[in-house]
């Protein structure tokens, strides 16, 4: 079993580690299982055992990442949330929530951004290096995800996590996103996560810019074979 997300560092991980972790942040259970399932019945049995234990521990979300053959993807009676093709198998996400759904109504005053028009608006600057002066605004942005100031300080001091910052003309951080990676068997799994935009700066397409720029940065950092 993985070590729970450290209360010592205050850092929060979305990708986790290989293995089972029933103590992930926000009352979640994670299972990163880098094996290829070739039998639907085996996946069903493993998922049910994992989900039952998660329920016994009263976790609010249960999520499993694993690899399956196309036949298992079509046959298994499990809650697939996503399936990403990789060579002749699929990286799949299985998920079950045990908390009430939350509906968010999009603000009709915020303009949508077409994918072909993703560009940094005037008045902002891109950066991929965080400094100690950024700890305070990053803490403000990430408190919603369970981060502490100490966790942000640890991340900034290490300087090893790929990130994209958007600053205003006063060099203040107004938007951020990071890329976490995991050795998933023979795969390098990369997740873009912790995206946050200061409320006063929303509606300018900054989130789309973060995703686009961090995707390019992750390809450069982890290589084209990363998933």
In short:
By secondary structure, this protein is an alpha+beta fold. It has five helices and nine strands; from the N terminus they run ββαβαβββααβββα.
- Give the oligomeric state: single chain
Question: Biggest β-sheet: count, sense, barrel?
Answer: 5 strands, mixed
Order of helices and strands: EEHEHEEEHHEEEH
Shape: globular
| Order of neighbouring strands in the sheet with most strands | 1-2-3-5-4
Low confidence ranges: 1-7
| First and last CA, distance | 24 Å
Output the structural class.
alpha+beta
Rg estimate, integer Å: 19 Å
- Average of per-residue pLDDT values: 89
Question: Percent range for helical residues?
Answer: 25-40%
Q: How many individual β-strands? A: 9
- Counting H and I runs of at least 4 residues, what is the number of helices? 5
**Estimated share of beta-strand residues:** 25-35%
Describe the structure.
The structure is a single chain. α3 crosses α4. The chain contains five helices and nine strands. The chain is of the alpha+beta class and 227 residues long. The protein is globular, with a radius of gyration of 19 Å. β8 and β9 form a beta hairpin.
